[in-house]
Amino acid sequence: MGKIIRKEPLAEGVVLLEIEAERVARSAQVGQFVVLMPYETSERIPISLHNWDRNKGTIEIVFQVVGRTTSELASLEVGEEPYALLGPLGKPLEIKRYGLVVCIGGGLGIPPIYNIARGLREAGNEVISIIGARTASLLILQDRTKSVSDRFLVCTDDGSYGEKGFVTGVLSRLLKSERIDLVIAIGPVPMMEAVANLTRPFGIKTIVSLNPLMLDATGMCGVCRVKVGGETKFACVDGPKFDAHQVDFADLKRRLAMYKEEERRALEEWKARI
Fold first, then answer.
1. Ramachandran category for residue 31: left, alpha or beta (phi over 0 → left; psi -120 to 50 → alpha)
2. pLDDT of amino acid 264
3. Which of 18, 58, 177, 192 is deepest in the core (most CB within 10 A)?
4. Closest Cα partner for 206 from 237, 146, 249?
5. Cα separation of 176 and 235, whole Å?
6. Beta pairing, strands 100-106 & 182-186
7. Is residue 133 within 8 Å of 154, Cβ to Cβ?
8. What is the pLDDT of residue 223?
9. Which residues, listed in sequence order, are joined to residue 89 by a DSSP beta bridge?
10. What pLDDT was estimated at residue 265?
11. d(CA 186, CA 217)
């Protein structure tokens, strides 16, 4: 299994890992993800691909330490190997020339929006990237994202860097002044829902990347089911990218909250053992 060759803290509790994964790097496409198990007894967790290098045979992932499994993953050091790494998974984003594309990354949505912006720009699109975070210390990967954007806009909730406010405020202004052909948003569910509500009246195709609970990531267990256009879809094999205007966000939020208490207890038990 792939060895960790770089571990870089990007912000408090946010870690970048570069991992040897030749087969994954060779096959990776824009918008896909991997599933990792830090240890044999760990849960399987899906993490979006941030970057990959086909020549080096490496991939880069970025995650935030929020629970037991991400804490376990963060405990691995350079030279160690996660117990399991599966991928690339999920349907790639269709990369073609759309015209003017707005790529929005909120918080941990910034790492995957980077490779999407890069792919769309390489396909000849004009790319406006908007990234946002609660505060300046949580803004990550600014230089990388800016490097693949024709226009780059930053905001923070508290105004400590860039424009004060939310990414939706910046998008709202663009919607009034630009002829936008496609919007892609990745980040917290309320943010993606708000983006969908903003673009719907304009009839602009809008894509979001969903992050439901996921177990086997093969479409067999059904844990990652989401409602899209009134139909049940499985994020691992049908997504994770979906038409934002068709997503049932209320159902997604309800499912994401189902195991909060179990997740809290698992983290406490893990901390008690280390």
1. left
2. 67
3. 192
4. 249
5. 32
6. parallel
7. no
8. 82
9. 33
10. 67
11. 19
β-strands 182-186, 205-209: how paired? parallel
Residue written as tokens 């570069």? Answer: 18
pTM above 0.70, yes or no: yes
Please write down the HEC assignment for all residues of 47-100. Answer: EEEEEEECCCCEEEEEEECCCHHHHHHHHCCCCCCCCEEEEEECCCCCCCCCCE
- Which residues, including other chains, have CB under 8 Å from residue 126's CB and lie 6 or more apart? 99, 100, 101, 150
Count Cβ atoms below 10 Å from residue 99 Cβ, excluding itself: 11
- Give mean pLDDT in consecutive 10-residue pieces for the chain, a chain of 274 residues: 92 96 96 94 92 96 92 95 94 96 96 96 98 95 97 96 95 95 96 97 96 79 88 92 96 79 68 68
Q: Are 141 and 114 in contact (CB under 8 A)?
A: yes
Q: Which of 59, 166, 51 is nearest to 112 (CA)?
A: 51
Nearest to 7 by CA among 75, 17, 53: 17
